[in-house]
Amino acid sequence: MHNKNKSSERISKLGEEVILNRLKKYMDDGQIDDDTALITALNKEIIINTDILVENIHFNKITSSPQNTGWKGVTANLSDLACSGVEDILGITVGLVVPGNTQWNWIEGVYEGINNALNQFGGKILGGDCSKGKQKILSITAIGTKGPLNLHRSNAKPGDILVTSGVHGLSKLGLELLLSDPFTTSFDLCEAVKERAIKAHQEPQPPLKALNKLISCKPKELPFKAAATDSSDGLLEAIECICKSSNCSAILEKKHIPIDKALPKEKHWTEWCLEGGEDFELIVSLPPPWAEAWLKSMPSTKAIGKIEKGLPQLRWSNGTKIQRKPTFKHF
Questions:
Q1: By the 8 A CB rule, do 235 and 145 touch?
Q2: Model-level pTM greater than 0.85?
């Protein structure tokens, strides 16, 4: 149980040295005694990713607890490592900016969330930095080793099958439930679906298991090479990124849209599935034999379309061009 007086202390009254001393419990002994972190040299390629969460843009006190914020800061990074073919997660660095009137228990909660995610998925805190600022910002850099699979958005080929590792739209539903969106609350959704949606938004899971299945089911005659990204910015955005990088077209099947079966069959929900974002699923373009093997080995996967020659654009199988809805923009 937290000490109440300690938890409510303002950061401006503590100072950097006290804050760092309190955060030492989340790191190896001596880890932050120097300004740098040592990673023992490995005979493997290293992949690195940085994600930033900004208060009132990516999280707020209504939608995310401090623990949720720390968890998502880690898992968003690990999702990006997964779609680059990560093998071992070495660790993360943490950059934290908070106003001076922030209470200590908010920072402690963020680090608890970070620690919980690392305990589940691997890696450790290697170091970082903290500073005073006008709003709360959490910047995490994740470091991992590259495995045998070469995953790049530019690797898609005509004839490939587009496969997603799971359903989409639950995170958007969870967000709207937390915001008490009138449209969402007008539907008679069962409590289990609501809980699943809120958990999908607050505690996303990086697709590391899906990556491992993808590697283990690869047909022997095929090279360790495929096109992939994650759907953190939306399903259509992910597919469009693959098309642009690979200079090809995607043909999608409306009947195969990966929406959760428990959700109503209504246009609004379909749009959330396609554009909602923060689903953190793998979107992979695979040769047909590999796609079939992944679909058989992992029940949550679903084939949603195929890659063809042509300009980088998305079309439905009836030939209609897919019109994108305005979605989240970083700027």
A1: no
A2: yes
Please name which of 163, 150, 67, 82 lies closest in space to residue 116, comparing C-alpha atoms: 67
**Right CATH for 4-146 from 3.40.109.30, 3.30.1330.10, 3.90.650.10, 1.10.10.1590:** 3.30.1330.10
Please give the CATH superfamily to which domain 150-316 belongs.
Answer: PurM-like C-terminal domain (3.90.650.10)
Per-residue pLDDT of the chain (331 residues; tens, 9 = 90+): 455 566 677 766 676 667 777 776 777 766 666 667 777 767 889 999 999 999 999 999 999 999 999 999 999 999 999 999 999 999 999 999 999 899 999 999 999 999 999 999 999 999 888 889 999 999 999 999 999 999 999 999 999 999 999 999 999 999 999 998 887 777 788 899 899 999 999 999 999 999 999 999 999 999 999 999 999 999 999 999 999 999 999 999 999 999 988 777 777 888 999 999 999 999 999 999 999 999 999 999 999 999 999 999 999 999 999 988 755 565 4
User: Residue 63: which residues within 8 A CB-CB, separation 6 or more?
Assistant: 175, 178, 179, 201, 202
Alpha helices in the chain (DSSP H): 4-7, 11-14, 16-23, 66-82, 104-121, 170-178, 182-185, 191-202, 208-216, 235-246, 267-275, 288-297
Residue extents of the structural domains in the chain: 4-146, 150-316
Token pair 């660095």 is found at 93
Angle at 121 between CA 120 and CA 125, to 5 degrees: 95
* CA nearest neighbour of 313 among 253, 258, 248, 259: 248
Phi, psi of 251 (to 5 degrees): -110, 120
